[in-house]
Amino acid sequence: MYRRLLRKLNEQKVRKDDEFPIRLSKDLGSMVDSIHNVVGESDDIIQRDFKIGSKVKASLFFVDGLVFDSGIEDRIIRPLIYFAKIDEERTTKQFVDYLLTEVITFIEAKEVPTIDEAILALLSGETLLVIDGVDKLLLFETRQFNQRGIEEPESEVIVRGPRDGFNEVLHTNVMLIRRRLRDPNLTVQFGQLGRRSKTDFAIVYLKGITNQDLVEEVRYRLSCIDLDLLSETGVIEQYIEENVLSPFPQVLRTERPDKTIHALTNGKVIIVVDGTPFILMAPITFSDLLKSTEDNYDRWQISSFIRLLRYFAAFMAVFLPGLYIAMVSYHQGMIPTVFALSIAGTREGVPFPGFVEAFLMELTFELLREAGIRLPRAIGQTIGIVGGLVIGDAAVRAGIVSPVMVIIVAITAIASFAIPAYNVSITFRLLRFGVMVAAAMFGLFGIVIVYILINIHLVGLRSFGSYYTSPFAPYKFEEWLDLMIRGPLVLLKNRPSEPRMLDEKRKDV
């Protein structure tokens, strides 16, 4: 059904600018006018008129600030003016071939068949050459961007591992992948999305491992995206996921090249978009949300302990406040007597029931966390720490909340910080409020009902056709060595069963 809907939407696309394509002409003046009609009166588009070999008129177009200026002057204009020899008997094709092979020294030079394609390349930073008497357009790769350096990612900090991360330039990010994976089967396919932004993107996969049906599915879903502006991979993520109502991410994002390489060798498809350091990988499973690339760099005992700690942290981040509400409101008899008396003593004078108390504290902490993210980094960290301490202490002194509630909220927040992926921790934070409501209404029975509903949803969820809960369900015990624990690397001989791959062995055994 999803594919039929996407196909129907794709067939409804109408590109009005393709209905009346601009024809190429041998007259330089008409070609220049056609280019000006398309780009409008833009002062940053520079036109340079000159004569090739002092005889043939030509015009050069480029966008100021996107090109390598000295390269255009030294390797295009100067050779054409001083070193080109004009033979009147040359045909158009011979003349173009002569210029590209004997005069112009740019490595990347090509002919384009339409003005639309030429204008798109021009606005991307390439240089366009129009020659009088020649019904061909020549493009030269002269792009040069000011870019942020390759730095350590801030959203995925690890103790041990490579410190470089992706930046906002597409070709730089592809280079970082190529530098680590020198396999001739590594395939990179470029495309563009956005009717007006014309944003470049790349699909990257490992031929011979990645299932070709998965590649075609990713390519098809991307081709069905019809929007004016594409500024971030988060937009693509919302368009290509299968269940838009699910709070769980069905595509994983990362800034780390080493994590990307690991995903490629496990049969996933990578989507890299120009203008953002976050790349997408698909398909994913629930276990991918709680894994870190650092797990492969430490000994298996250490990695297994940390991974188990993450699962425990995920459970606490979702259910701990709800368990507190259920115990305090409905099941006091399940609490040890000494501890129950201690809780009752701290709650003496608190005017709110446990649910209101927990909801107010959780909401306040979420506000502090969001404020800390939006403020400048030095101030934001201070606001998050000092604000939490001051507000928590003041709330206890004022008798609004109990000290135990402050401890519960603090532990819950710390547990959510232990989740490797930021968007997954947000999902757990959202589910926490649902668990709190259920606990306030039905106690432990409500928590169990929510837990069952979450599992039913996860079992039915798919990521590009792959089972989201694999290898929990479908049950594959042989893959549990790299699930909640990370077994010794010498025993991890097979790749995961999801997604389905052409080569299931990590190495010959």
Short description:
The protein is of the alpha+beta class.
Characterization of the model:
There is one protein chain. β4 and β5 form a beta hairpin. By secondary structure, this protein is of the alpha+beta class. It starts with a helix and ends in a 42-residue tail after the last strand. The N terminus is likely disordered. A five-stranded antiparallel β-sheet has the order 1-2-4-5-3, sandwiched between helices. It has a five-stranded antiparallel β-sheet with strand order 6-7-9-10-8, sandwiched between helices. It folds into three domains: 130 residues, no CATH class; 113 residues, no CATH class; 172 residues, no CATH class. Helices cover 46% and strands 12% of the residues.
Blueprint of the fold:
Blueprint: H1 2-11, H2 28-39, E1 45-52, E2 56-63, H3 69-82, H4 92-103, E3 109-112, H5 115-123, E4 127-131, E5 137-140, H6 170-180, E6 186-193, E7 199-206, H7 212-223, H8 233-240, E8 252-254, H9 257-265, E9 269-273, E10 279-282, H10 300-329, H11 337-346, H12 354-374, H13 377-397, H14 403-417, H15 422-442, H16 444-460, E11 462-463, E12 466-467
Antiparallel strand pairs: 1-2, 2-4, 3-5, 4-5, 6-7, 7-9, 8-10, 9-10, 11-12
Helix pairs in contact: 6-9, 10-14, 10-15, 12-13, 12-14, 12-15, 15-16
GO biological process, one term: spore germination
Family: Belongs to the GerABKA family.
Subcellular location: Cell membrane; Membrane
What are its keywords?
alpha+beta, 509 residues, 3 domains, 12 strands, five-stranded antiparallel sheet, 16 helices
